[in-house]
Amino acid sequence: MTTTPDRISFLPVPTETEVPEGVAKLWRKAQGNLGFVPNVFKAQALNGEQFQAWWSYFNLLLNKEGHLSGQERELVAVVVSSINACLYCAVSHGAALRLSGMDAAKADAVAVNWRQAPLTAREAALCRYAEQLTRDPASMTEADLEPLRAAGLNDHQLMELVQVIGMFNLTNRVSSALGFVPNAEYYGAGR
């Protein structure tokens, strides 16, 4: 199935009058804060209650004060999304990574091949772990945490790292399976 330029998902996208009030409220808030409604908000709203549950956890992991810095969480999001070849998330979180203060050239390198980006030792440890857990979760052992501990991560940061990696593996699969198209606004953000 091919997509047309105005199509943002392989499935129908509900209108604001067709979604629960909580979803409509979130769309209005996004429009006010960002100047647009992310296509992932529109596309996932086909099942409004499930979208709201996903958003609650996603928002907690990515947008609230956490144990990792916001930039570290976005770094991991971009690495996982790049490995999974998820267009929507690689583009949207690449924008978020740039907007977090990371130099655009470094953020772009992360999105293509994090090994070629000028990363700190801590950033490289986060990326290495994100790649391993994404590519081969069955291979994970307690020893895989040691490089992260050596890079200064504590138990709370380790738990949050794993949760962010898990969230993006889920979200990448939903976005890719249903052909979610990134908003045009993401491409130039932070450049």
Automatic annotation (TrEMBL):
<protein>
    <submittedName>
        <fullName>Peroxidase-related enzyme</fullName>
    </submittedName>
</protein>
<dbReference type="InterPro" id="IPR004675">
    <property type="entry name" value="AhpD_core"/>
</dbReference>
<dbReference type="InterPro" id="IPR029032">
    <property type="entry name" value="AhpD-like"/>
</dbReference>
<dbReference type="GO" id="GO:0004601">
    <property type="term" value="F:peroxidase activity"/>
</dbReference>
<feature type="domain" description="Carboxymuconolactone decarboxylase-like">
    <location>
        <begin position="50"/>
        <end position="131"/>
    </location>
</feature>
<dbReference type="Pfam" id="PF02627">
    <property type="entry name" value="CMD"/>
</dbReference>
<dbReference type="InterPro" id="IPR003779">
    <property type="entry name" value="CMD-like"/>
</dbReference>
<keyword id="KW-0575">Peroxidase</keyword>
<dbReference type="InterPro" id="IPR010195">
    <property type="entry name" value="Uncharacterised_peroxidase-rel"/>
</dbReference>
<keyword id="KW-0560">Oxidoreductase</keyword>
